[in-house]
Design goal:
Rossmann fold, 317 residues, 2 domains, 11 strands, 4-stranded parallel sheet, 5-stranded parallel sheet, globular, alpha/beta, binds phosphoric acid mono(formamide)ester
Length: 317
């Protein structure tokens, strides 16, 4: 694998899930491959899971790791070309080029701005990172996609469905939030799920929150959460801001919070969320803390999702 930007960089999703599960059983199987190799983790935005699971994945492969939180530990970066840099100290071109000299794989997180739809949905910033890096690049969440999260999500669903053999109705449900959040988890999850033919995939959201068709066109879309939840085996809750009214939080009449009562409509569904989650805004405590909540397993699988991707790239070097 040369770069990892999206599911399109994976040859076969079933194979990569299987290989991830093998790594989960034997995490140190490829410890020698990372000898004298360094992975650089660069964050333009906050992170808990991505940052630590990638470090753990790199250690499992015997790699060295460095981490840079750009906003806390570095110069103020100029993202645009041609500007007179009065308020910024270092251009993205030099920053990425230089950081890529200090590692064998460069992994980067850059959230969307959520006001310029074309800039975000054309992945202008991540394309610059791919252009300026002299080493393979891994997407730790870009403007529109969060592929390592989605890989962890499909690994988790595979584990809880006997590798998609048992009934597998998966509902990605929009849930409320007070802030304007990216679409990347929902877009990316939808993209990965589309590669797994055994999954009956539904997106439940208010009509004001329809996702970009490019990512949602293979899903059944429900604007009634109760209808969508009937017989579901997995409920994946996530908030995202509006796509049509780009980046906005729009008031809606119904309450879309995931509650214990709504979970009772499902077929004893497992509850999923990528975290972090705002309790009692997105989901009730009792759902999050129930035996059917598999949020920690999802978070744990972030290690093996990152590890298999780093391994594929190391094997290519
Ligand atoms: N789910 C996820 O990406 O978590 P972090 O933002 O904490 O990395």
């Amino acid at each position: 694998m040369k770069n990892f930007f999206s599911v399109e960089d994976v040859i076969n999703v079933y194979d990569i899930i299987n290989e991830s599960l093998l790594l989960k059983k034997k995490p140190f199987l490829f410890q020698k491959i990372g000898k004298n190799k360094t992975i650089g983790l660069v964050f333009f935005n906050p992170s808990l899971r991505t940052r630590i699971s990638c470090q753990k994945a790199a250690f499992n492969l015997g790699c060295n790791v460095w981490v840079l939180d750009i906003n806390k530990d570095s110069w103020k970066i100029e993202m645009d070309d041609g500007n007179i840099m009065i308020n910024t100290q270092e251009h993205i071109k030099e920053a990425i080029s230089v950081m890529s000299l200090y590692c064998d794989i460069l992994a980067v997180r850059t959230f969307p701005n959520l006001f310029d739809k074309d800039y975000d949905y054309n992945e202008i910033l991540f394309k610059k990172i791919l252009l300026y890096s002299k080493v393979p690049v891994v997407n730790l969440e870009s403007a529109t996609l969060h592929p390592l999260q989605s890989l962890a999500d499909v690994i988790t669903i595979a584990e809880y469905s006997s590798f998609f053999k048992s009934k597998c109705k998966v509902v990605l449900s929009w849930a409320p939030h007070i802030k304007s959040l990216p679409h990347s988890v929902a877009n990316s999850f939808s993209q990965w799920i589309s590669k797994i033919k055994e999954i009956d995939f539904i997106i439940a959201c208010p009509k004001e929150y329809n996702l970009h068709e490019k990512f949602s066109n293979h899903a059944k879309i429900f604007h009634n959460q109760y209808e969508a939840f009937k017989n579901a085996n997995f409920i994946y809750a996530k908030n995202w801001s509006s796509f049509s009214n780009y980046g906005k939080v729009i008031d809606i009449d119904d309450n879309w919070m995931i509650t214990e009562d709504k979970m009772k409509i499902t077929n004893k569904a497992k509850f999923m969320h990528c975290l972090p989650v705002r309790r009692n805004i997105v989901v009730e405590d009792s759902v999050l803390d129930s035996n059917d909540s598999i949020i920690l397993e999802q978070a744990n699988n972030r290690i093996y999702a990152a590890q298999i991707i780093f391994l594929k790239i190391l094997q290519f070097l």
